Amino acid sequence: MKKNKIYDCVTFFDNNLMFELRYNILIEYVDYFVVCESKYDHRGKPKKINFNFKNEYDQKKVKHFVLEKPFPKDANIWQNQAIQREFLLKCTDFADPNDYIFFSDPDEIPKPELFVNFQLKKKYGIFMQKCFNYKFNLFNRYESPWEGTRVCKKKNLKSIDFMRQKVKSKNLKYSFFRFDKEKDIEIFYEAGWHFNNILSPKEISIKLKTFAHSEFSSEKYSSIEVISEKIQKKIDLFGRNHRYEVINIDNTYPKFFLQNIEKYKKFIISSDA
After folding, report:
1. 102 three-class SS
2. What is the pTM of this model?
3. Domain for residue 113, yes or no?
4. Among the four residues 1, 105, 140, 256, which has the most C-beta atoms within 10 Å?
5. Helices 224-233 and 201-210 meet at what angle, rounded to 10?
């Protein structure tokens, strides 16, 4: 019986540290990594190509696609984000109908053990992931579990943006008669990690000034000094009264991360901090 291949798909802006971690965690389990990067940010401004195709990456497995065209002038930020995601859809044209297409942000890393003999019982799947902010061990209980990675078979993939925006766990609470809500969904619990904003204050500032949530681009949120203070205080960037918790790094973390922890110590906070 032919094995269904696994495609790990991400849209990329500039976080090479996170993609490298993702690659090394998933390399034994994934058939192809599909990376889609645009020459323009979500605001439509030109940007350089940031993806670092490292020598150690398997050249046959990592597929880096570049969206060359500018976004339409009349498109808004969210439409630009959707356009990049739909370009990613075209980048999976070489997949077979029964292959699995996983879509994540680069910092949403699925638990690799779940890929072993993976079978999706519903049309779509959602991976519920433990959420961390700023540091690998600064736990965000307010947004955990995080609805991160989505998956479906290639033959059921009509739109990446639909899978991201409309395939939600809350849909399962609606009555049978709410035909406008996609409910053919399988939930995978304890299914990975969302390492959110594991970046320097400067990198977070750039992200806030370029990503789709334009309401957070003002200096009130994006100032490097403001961001540094919030990281120091272990509080939310957006004034939601979230205070994060330092936890011990244990065997629930990815095996590769534990084996190479020295490489990531810049983004690990001591338990007495």
Report:
1. strand
2. 0.92
3. yes
4. 140
5. 120
Integer-rounded Cα Rg, in Å, for the chain is 19
Distance CA 148, CA 167 (A): 11
- Count other Cβ atoms within 10 Å, centred on residue 51: 18
Here the CATH number for the domain that contains residue 161 is 3.90.550
The pLDDT of residue 212: 60
* Start-to-end CA span in the chain (Å): 53
pLDDT digits (tens, 9 = 90+) for 59-81: 999 999 999 999 888 888 888 88
Token pair of 71, please?
A: 């976004």
In whole angstroms, give the CA distance from residue 102 to residue 104: 7
Please indicate, yes or no, if residue 250 is contained in any of the structural domains: yes
In a domain, 155, yes or no: yes
Grouping H, G, I as helix, E, B as strand and the rest as coil, residue 242 is: coil
Decide if pLDDT at 95 tops 80.
yes
Domain with 111 in it:
6-199+246-267
